[in-house]
Amino acid sequence: xxxxxxxxxxxxxxxxxxxxxxxxxxxxxxxxxxxxxxxxxxxxxxxxxxxxxxxxxxxxxxxxxxxxxxxxxxxxxxxxxxxxxxxxxxxxxxxxxxxxxxxxxxxxxxxxxxxxxxxxxxxxxxxxxxxxxxxxxxxxxxxxxxxxxxxxxxxxxxxxxxxxxxxxxxxxxxxxxxxxxxxxxxxxxxxxxxxxxxxxxxxxxxxxxxxxxxxxxxxxxxxxxxxxxxxxxxxxxxxxxxxxxxxxxxxxxxxxxxxxxxxxxxxxxxxxxxxxxxxxxxxxxxxxxxxxxxxxxxxxxxxxxxxxxxxxxxxxxxxxxxxxxxxxxxxxxxxxxxxxxxxxxxxxxxxxxxxxxxxxxxxxxxxxxxxxxxxxxxxxxxxxxxxxxxxxxxxxxxxxxxxxxxxxxxxxxxxxxxxxxxxxxxxxxxxxxxxxxxxxxxxxxxxxxxxxxxxxxxxxxxxxxxxxxxxxxxxxxxxxxxxxxxx
Length: 487
Ligand code: FRU
Hints:
The chain is mainly beta. It is built from one helix and 32 strands. β13 (about 200-210) and β14 (about 220-225) form a beta hairpin. The protein is globular. The N and C termini lie close together (about 10 Å). The relative contact order is 0.13. The chain binds beta-D-fructofuranose (FRU). Beta-D-fructofuranose binds near residues 22, 79 and 152. Beta-D-fructofuranose binds near residues 21, 38, 49, 79 and 204.
């Protein structure tokens, strides 16, 4: 099967073949999680964009469906969102049932090539059979006011204001639009020129309320992807925590906040339509970076999505953070497991993983910091001496992934790097790690920080070592699971 190629993820979403970028149109409806995605079916590099489509009952096992949206005379189908119009506010439903509605960006390549500035508009399509086939609305529902970067509408129903709200990325800020029927849109506000990181163009926004964990208080979160200008170079996703009054978003936040501290999580948004009884904010991102996405050494397909994650809002020492934790559905992947008998490491200590294959595994390690200026963590390596290291430096109060010797990197000058982030650890530090052939996702302290990186070793990593460079570090919990393939 195609899914047995060397770098093909076994439990992450990838298209059967060819190029994929952003997740789009994520909506839950009648027991199905829909995932659409930026797709070019004719090549393994970016090109005229379509919306690919897949469905899942658990965000883990996926069924590929035919392409949902093809480019047309209005242009390529760029990123956007989908909703279920339950009350048929659009009038586009059938037999007393509301339609599924997709709102996306039309990118007119001719206008773009001619140097015009109004080539991105927002289009609409609807489906009356659970997204299996789509009909396009005859003309764009939001015209371009003369700004080249005008894209990636995220639409959702906001009960509090009884309105459809759209967040739209407009060059260096986010604009908000409101509608009662999904077809007529009125601009209500703008946010961002004076806030956040501005090293690149703003893309793929998302706006949603989240309960602060352990309280009944709700804050609004605004996700904004930015390319370039991310903290690890290239593309990355920043977030803001604040308030939304039905018209615009505001925040007192002055510092930059990043959703992920690795290099490979971009353009992610959350699912619409999650029932209140569930109430989770469920997220997926594109597990690559525009710096090198089109050059990574895969052939039949390019790019995977991140693991599905639950976003949680936490207040830690008076400071809000948006945490990312792997969704509990991922536990169904666990096959054999081993509790590892290790209680203390000093120097490099080999961890016997027996017959568990590291390249398709989940690991959990709890470290207890010693008092010295130590550095400790996990190293995965192979017989060629290629290795990837994740660790914590007590001296620098930094988490890091070091992929400088991880494997093939000749496709880009910017791939070999150490990705670091400041992190104030308590005495105990937990690394919850997912490895899937060519990617690592490290969830620290139940998601208080996450680092996502891709890598391409010549042969599989088969050796797991824990390290503690200065003095010894206690390990209070250590386990590894073999994970099953979903393909
Ligand atoms: C983000 C992005 C979006 C755009 C899409 C095009 O990765 O550049 O802004 O809609 O990709 O494929």
